Structures are given as structure tokens and as C-alpha cells.
Amino acid sequence: MKILIVGSGGREHAIAWKISKSPRVEKIYCAPGNAGIAGIAECVPIDAMEFEKLADFAQENAIDLTVIGMDAPLVGGIVDVFEARGLRVFGPRKNAAVIEGSKVFSKDLMKKYGIPTAAYETFVDADKAIRYLETASYPIAVKADGLALGKGALICETFEEAKEGVRTLMIDRQFGEAGDSIVIEEFLIGPEVSALCFCDGTTIRTMTSAQDHKRAKDGDQGLNTGGMGTFSPSLFYTGEVDEFCKKYVYQPTMDAMKKEGRDFVGVLFVGLILTPNGPKVLEYNARFGDPETQVVLPRMKNDIVDVFEACIDGRLGEIELQFEDNAAVCVILASDGYPEKYEKGFPIRGLERFEGKNDYFVFHAGSRFGKDGAIVTNGGRVLGVTAIGTDLKQARAKAYEATEWIDFDNKYMRNDIGRAIDEV
Question: Based on C-alpha coordinates, what's the Rg of the chain?
């Protein structure tokens, strides 16, 4: 098989790595890819939002399967474009990807079908939102409706913070049209857990759990980011939690989307918070999480191509997902200043230390080739250093050991990824 992956981050590198393990695959392409992905796939200089060009490439190169990694192309309707050309593609159609593309849609869906989530109100007028905040309880969450690179959710401790949050999203339009409408919801307390699920429109199968660290600085301080590190499995995600979520969250979400005429085929990311009153949904994403993918896929036993095709063909019920009885931790190496201003273009040293190692991985998120052919930094999140261990404590120790193998100017990381391991 020849497979095309659409995307350029650490998630796509992890997907490419996993696909490369399939004996069914003879050639992998990635558009646009990055310097790390170039080690296992042929990178194609087509932007992820150039749907027609990507479909042309797939047809001209007899691509057997295209896998969409990123959120923006999915929400924009890339799957519909490929399907209209008769091309096999893994990911939800535009009318299903709206579950991530609009928080207002997803919150209203959960309310309509009784899926547990935080109480909320939605607004399209900034003044009305601010008047609502004057009588609200704090802390409170203010969220952009649309895609905001994982940074559109603001946790506000006071009315003044919340008011400023509304201004940032709706008036200053920091995330553009994503802030045309907003969701204001109650602040929930408890551990957050990421559940990635394969879906074929009817059947849903949950992968192993993971736990992300969104804030930029140690101790969950600083701004929200796309994710500074993650570990799998989450010790908070017990069998009891899994059974509850299968009954009241996962399958009801699949059924709700089907009833709305929006059959969901692809990966559904369910962001959960385990409150004293039970698990509740914080958010949905319509694709693999980043960096959760970097710890989930290295633990997966199945041939991922088999799973992709079962989802597309409505045969997911025939698949039993299997994961190794081990643990993984991923620490993000970022450019100092991320998620705000940062410099890039610095040479990355030490990547060769990962060659030939089966339990250490370095997934590239923001890298490119410099003029001299050396790999240089090219983003806020640069690399995801992942290690496998017999348990979480060993995996964490190995991951931090491996971060010392890598060096580049302005290198920054959190030093407390996996701290929750010591709390359970």
C-alpha cells in the first residue's frame, strides 16, 4: 500500500512511525511533513489546507489511503473533497468534524442528548457576555467557539480576568473568527484525562488512556499551550471510570451524531475531567491528540492500517484493540517564549542518540532542514521526547534522561510532566 499523511507535527510523526511498522505498507508520503518525518516518509511540499492539490497528488500517485492528522483540514472539509474523487481517506467529514470545530455545537449536542458536561452559556455579543460574568461564580472558563491551536480556553479567577478574556477573544479577535461566539462554562475540579477513540460511525473503540499537561510552566502555571507533555496510561482512569464513560459518554456521543445525520468516522478525542460528581466531558476533538498520540501509539499492538480500514468500511466491531502492559511518558522540548513570541532556526544537536533504540523516541513537531542540511528548530513546540518503561515512574525517568541528549538554543521544557504519578 501507498499511504499519504496530511500534517506536519509531532502527532503526524507518531502516526507515520506507527504506519511504517505495518507489513502492508510499501511507501509513505507526508504533506507537508517536517525534518523528522522525512526520515520515514517522502515529504511533499503541499500545504495541509490545499485540498484539491492534495487530492490531485493522491490520484496521480495511486495513493491507497490518506490519513488526515490535523484539525483545520478536517473542519474545513478535506474528507468530503477526497471522497468526492473516490479516494479512500481516514477522518470525519466536515459535518461530523464540527464536533471540534464549534464548541457551541458540541455543548448543545451534549445538552440535547444528556451527555455529562459542565453547565454553560453561549454568547455572540461581547457586552452581553460581560454582563453575564458580573453575576457569575469564579473561577470560570471562557472558551472560543472555533479552532484556536489548543489555546482558546481561558481559566479566569476573577471578573476582571474573565472580562479581559472576552475582550481578547471577541473584540481583539486574538484567534480570528474562532472568537465570533464564545462559551462560558462552570469551572470543574478534578484530574483531566484524554480518551482517544476509533469510530466507524456506529461502533466506538477506546484506546488506552493518557493525561496531558496544557499549561506552559511547571505547576500548571502560565498560558495554555497545545500541550507540554503527556503520559499513558492515566492512573486516574480506572475500570469503573471506563465503564461509566462507555455507557454515558462514548456510545451516546456516537449515537447522538448518527441521529443528527453526522456519522462520525475517524478518531474522536474525548477530553474528560473526573469530578467528585463523576466524569464529565470538557471537550471533543475530531482527530488524534497532540501530544497524546506520542504515548498512545507506541503502546498499541494492532496494525494501525487494519484499524483505519475497519473504521472506513464500518467493520470496527471486528477489531479488538490491544495495548502493551507498559507505560509511556512524553516531554515536549519547546522554544523558550512559547506559546507567545519565540525565535527559531537554531541547529538541533543530539538526535543521533535515539537511533537504534526501541524504547526511546523523538517525534518532531517543529523542525526543518537548514541551508546546510542540518535540522533546525521551526516552531514553538520543537520535539516530543518519549520513553517506554515497565511502569510510569520508570518511563518518566527515562524520558527526562533522554531530554538531556538533545540540545538547541532557547530549549525549554517543563520539569514536572507526570507529577500526577506521585499523587495516586
Answer: 20
